[in-house]
């Protein structure tokens, strides 16, 4: 017996997930009402909770593949790097002031 794999469009999947999440009905009950296998609906609901969409296999908050950063992440990284450079510069200035004070005290004590 050959089984045919049914393909559901994104709108149907999102609607089915919305029924489960908004009504609170159990997945097997909603699946039976819609005529789809409960395991299929369960995977859509799980994927929607994890990724924000039952159609997407990629997590919504994850950076894009290949290690590339989104514009917002790139701007945040640049801001943090600039902040770190400023703090490093201030630390060097304070260390220099400390060293000068140490030398002054050493000369004054003599």
From TrEMBL:
Pfam families tied to this protein: HTH_Tnp_1
UniProt-listed InterPro entries: Homeodomain-like_sf, Transposase_8
Superkingdom: Bacteria
Spans annotated as Disordered: 30-76
Name of this protein: Transposase
């Amino acid at each position: 017996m050959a089984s045919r794999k049914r393909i559901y469009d994104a709108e149907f999947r999102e609607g089915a997930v919305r029924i489960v999440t908004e009504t609170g009905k159990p997945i097997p009950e909603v699946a039976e009402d819609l005529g789809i296998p409960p395991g299929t609906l369960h995977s859509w609901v799980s994927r929607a909770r994890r990724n924000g969409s039952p159609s997407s296999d990629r997590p919504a908050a994850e950076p894009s593949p290949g290690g590339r950063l989104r514009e917002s992440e790139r701007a945040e990284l640049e801001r943090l790097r600039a902040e770190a450079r400023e703090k490093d510069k201030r630390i060097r200035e304070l260390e220099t002031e400390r060293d000068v004070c140490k030398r002054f005290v050493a000369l004054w004590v003599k």
